[in-house]
Amino acid sequence: MKRQWIAMMSIAVLSAAMLSGCGAEVSSQSSETPASQVSIPDAETASAVESTADTADASLQLGDQLKKPKKGEEIAVIETTQGTIKLRLFPQEAPKTVENFKTLAKDGVYDGLPFHRIIDNFMIQTGQSSSTSIYGGNFEDEFSENLLNLRGAVSMANVGAADTNGTQFFINQTPADHFPGWDNILNGYRAYMQNPEGFTQVYGTWPDMSKVTMEIRELYEKYGGNPSLDGAYTTTGLGHTVFGQVFEGMDVVDRIAKAKVDENQKPVSDDYKIKTITITTYEG
Question: SS3 for 213?
Fold first, then answer.
């Protein structure tokens, strides 16, 4: 049963590696720690772990990404062929990523682009594979301990290696009823602790359960999402930068996720596109 659940989780990890259409490159760890020495935060220690987190914006706490934006806050409105998706942005936590996204949106780079990779119950992805960021090439990851790849989180796609962000982004779509459960993820983590290097070579990155607090567990159990993508909480330190959150239009995301796709997860219809992305202020 353990092997079955590890295999199921590895599908999500391998799917994440395909977010940019390229194979993943993961770093290996050679040290081995007995599984009996694994330290997992419990309900009592979780708050202490969270209180020591170094955050770029003290006003943004774990879970706050799910709140609606404040009046006057800058947001992104994505008009698609399937409806409207509205995003809250987090420039305090991911300043370079948000600036890249906003500038590309204002320049019309995303206008007319398809959601070229769709995996139902995982994510929908868009962006240009041939263009570069506003910084003239790939730019660095901006992982925040306060932002998670929860359902509705908007994150940068990469090639499975550190600091390879460009123009492509995806919206996490995994619902809570498709979350495999922390007991199963913990089984995989214990296997990792028995042989970190061997496990990483086979399965890639994995949630580091010595860092995952009770609050994080509860958020994923309630809302769904993909914890293996959280760079601040993975065994390899690899992941995907969260820079936004859908606060309106998840029904549109789900509709796009249901598109019929080919063997490469590309929609067989061309009716799953971005029309425009507008950067505006939230009026409530």
Answer: coil
State CA 123 to chain mean position distance.
9
104-126 burial, b at 16+ Cβ within 10 Å, e below that, comes to: bbeeebbeebbbbbbbbebbbbb
DSSP type of residue 149: -
Q: Which tokens go with 256?
A: 């796009």
- Rounded to whole angstroms, the Cα distance separating 215 from 8 reads 24
C-alpha separations of 49 from 1, 43, 44, 207 in Å: 32, 10, 10, 16
Q: Above pLDDT 90, what percent of the chain? A: 77
Q: Which stretch of 26-30, 98-102, 194-198, 203-207 has the lowest confidence by average pLDDT?
A: 26-30
Q: How far apart are CA 164 and CA 13, in angstroms?
A: 17
- Strand extents, DSSP E, the chain: 74-80, 83-89, 117-119, 123-126, 153-156, 169-172, 242-248, 274-281
